[in-house]
Amino acid sequence: MQVQPHILVVDDDREIRTLLGRYLDGQGFRVSVAADRRECEQKLGAGQFDLLVLDVMLPDGSGLDICSGLRDRKPHMPVILLTALKEDVDRIIGLELGADDYLGKPFNPRELTARIRAVLRRSSPEDAPVAPRPRVYRFAGYRLEPDTRKVTDAHGVAVDLTGAEFDLLQVFLDRPGRLLSRDQLLDLTQGRERDPLDRSVDVLMSRLRRKFTETGDGPLFKTVRNGGYQLTARVETVEDHA
């Protein structure tokens, strides 16, 4: 029997909590809810969750602070932020803090469900078909293992990446040397079209650049004005015999 993913929904609006609890339960998820930061922290400390749906504005604090704290305590827990439709700054800060996706209010529960499923697929490699000898990518002294979603540097030290960062990096490794537009990157990583004001790809690229040092030939990623981004390093794909 397949285990139901456990979702924690944090929102101070009782109507939204009730609606999402019922709807997500009907979609095959196990759902817990919290009305504020205090209750959220209590439930995170007492239970295990597969994904957090988190409102940015809470009566006793900011959802952004919760998101920031999770990066240290539960770095692999996916987070989807709920933000006011016009609060672009909160969305950008949330992505910089490690959120995997965001959705502006008001929203359709069906769209949130689709986002949840997409994020869970990206963060659950064990559900993917297992190849006899999984491929390994080598680039600029780094090593990426798709089966374990692990990246290490030349000294074997792990590079800590969020699910969204890992997916974006692998898109580049699958297409070495290709110039990829923001629209292409968003479609390939999240399966959705980009809003004209959507800066999520730029934020993720900024985070990747901070985590990967320059190669001897310069920056690992190149920005092409009005074009997009390009991975400059040579990529080798080998079979993992380890």
TrEMBL record:
UniProt domain Response regulatory: residue ranges: 6-120
Pfam families cross-referenced by the UniProt entry: Response_reg, Trans_reg_C
Record keywords: Activator, Cytoplasm, DNA-binding, Phosphoprotein, Transcription, Transcription regulation, Two-component regulatory system
A GO cellular-component term linked to this record: cytosol
Keyword Phosphoprotein: yes
Keyword Transcription: yes
PROSITE patterns: OMPR_PHOB, RESPONSE_REGULATORY
DNA-binding region per Swiss-Prot/TrEMBL record: 134-233
Positions carrying 4-aspartylphosphate: 55
InterPro entries the UniProt entry points to: CheY-like_superfamily, OmpR/PhoB-type_DNA-bd, Sig_transdc_resp-reg_C-effctor, Sig_transdc_resp-reg_receiver, WalR-like, WH-like_DNA-bd_sf
Domain of life: Bacteria
Domain OmpR/PhoB-type intervals: 134-233
Record's subcellular location: Cytoplasm
SUPFAM superfamilies: C-terminal effector domain of the bipartite response regulators, CheY-like
PANTHER family named among the record's database cross-references: DNA-BINDING DUAL TRANSCRIPTIONAL REGULATOR OMPR, REGULATOR OF RPOS
Name of the molecule in the record: Regulatory protein VirG
Biological source species: Mesorhizobium qingshengii
